User: What shape does this take?
Amino acid sequence: MIRIGILGYGNLGRGVEAAIKKNPDTELVAVYTRRDPSALKLATEGVAVKSAAELESGSEPIDVLIICGGSATDLPKMTPKYAALYNVIDSFDTHANIPVHFANVDAASKQAGKVGVISCGWDPGMFSLSRVYASAVLPDGRDYTFWGKGVSQGHSDAVRRIDGVLDCRQYTIPVPEALDKVRSGSDPELSTREKHTRECFVVAEEGADLARIENEIKTMPNYFADYDTTVHFISADEMKANHSGLPHGGSVIYSGTTSDGTKHVIEYSLKLDSNPEFTGSVLVACARAAVRLNAEGVSGAKTILDLPPACLSAKSPEELRAHLL
Amino acid sequence: MIRIGILGYGNLGRGVEAAIKKNPDTELVAVYTRRDPSALKLATEGVAVKSAAELESGSEPIDVLIICGGSATDLPKMTPKYAALYNVIDSFDTHANIPVHFANVDAASKQAGKVGVISCGWDPGMFSLSRVYASAVLPDGRDYTFWGKGVSQGHSDAVRRIDGVLDCRQYTIPVPEALDKVRSGSDPELSTREKHTRECFVVAEEGADLARIENEIKTMPNYFADYDTTVHFISADEMKANHSGLPHGGSVIYSGTTSDGTKHVIEYSLKLDSNPEFTGSVLVACARAAVRLNAEGVSGAKTILDLPPACLSAKSPEELRAHLL
Assistant: This one.
């Protein structure tokens, strides 16, 4: 039994909790929180809720800690801190800062003789695997990543910060013509605007200036200005009825050449009803790998690119060879 | 520079040769053949053609030998034989016999202190990776594998053995309705006939009884009897003009559940202009991994499921983390 602790009980923490129920070789031992533990009600009966402070002894009865925090401010501090005490897993997804985060976790994990797997999820994560395998097999080629259709929580949050906005759900949508071009193997050059559109469902305060809100969204730098964006104003009831899920997905498409005129197109795509439950499921598979590698004497920071695929599976190498190879 | 030897110069051997040209960290040192070496003309200038017998000294100047033989009779003998002397790679694809083949190669490789990677290609190979990753992340789910549209060399050969047949190209084609059902996540039960159809382009001897040939094809056990098969008789010129390539491909589709009513669909698909060139490209990436692992002191049989993904890539772990993760 792999004994797992979860740190942080937001959407992702609950996604990890759901995933543990689907993996009979794993057990949720405790959820750790920086809030008041007595205020937390878990979906799983009989699991302890503890203060995050308890982790600092380094003697909590867990084989691995899955850290469910935000990439902007939580994980850069939390992952190295707990990597010095436990095997840890995170879903750090600020691509540009991965090298620094990796170095910090590596130093802490190595000193502790533990394994820290960073940036697990689907991008970075499963999509990264697709990019690496495809480019390793077909070095003369290029990759395209499309996200959606799905809810971007970062973009939804950005709209919620606009004056007069009560709630927002932002969908990122790949442009079908761009997908078709890439799938044909024609290696098109595509601008940001040509790859994705954005669609916002917004609940505004009564009497708010809707034209101003729509304009503020569409001209917001980085988030929306480079995209064709559609804005729909809806009621709070409509939001609850039609937009309460967190679906997501996307595709990594790679086209490569092996000789004159000989093309190959590789596509990996995901259609996810729940982004946090799928991401949580990847975290649990990586937690299994971390515990196994650490038991073999491995230490230091890893990413999913360093983990032998068989290590992620509950099935034995013999079963995998006989039935899935 | 990774020094590679190729044993066997059929379609697959030539595919490996093409792949080596696309991988600047690899070098083709020699092609070994069981035929008369002087009868072989390579596509690459300046590469030695040698008798397979030369390999038996164990002192050929290669880091890894890629064995390009058939799974029925060649590889079960050849891979263990050469695994006792060199790092070796093969594309053994008789799924049912993989455990025995693995054990034979493992014994030979371990004794020699070498690495032998078996069953590399796309199925087994890249498709196996998709099945393993998907089931590791979503253990409550199931996979479906579809092949095609593409040329099945085994089925083409089977038709060629029929009396009165001069040539045949057999295409395996997934049934679109079956693909749609699986992609919807509805977990259908599908019979062999419901998943694929088969289409044969046949060049017959002049005056041959076409009705008899068509009937022999359609009723052939294992190969065609369980499928809806279409047979077209064409001229040798038409065969050459329209069916000289060896395209293939297919999809692994996995649907899994993380909580009540929460579904996820993962699809990995390949569209390959040349089956042997793509398979050869996978073999070369696995050869790189074998040489690296052996340099770290690893020995024994491996499959692609045991190889850390980063090991297959010519890029450094730092480059992969910075640009592809």
Remarks:
- DSSP finds eleven helices and 14 strands in chain B.
- The mean pLDDT of chain B is 97.
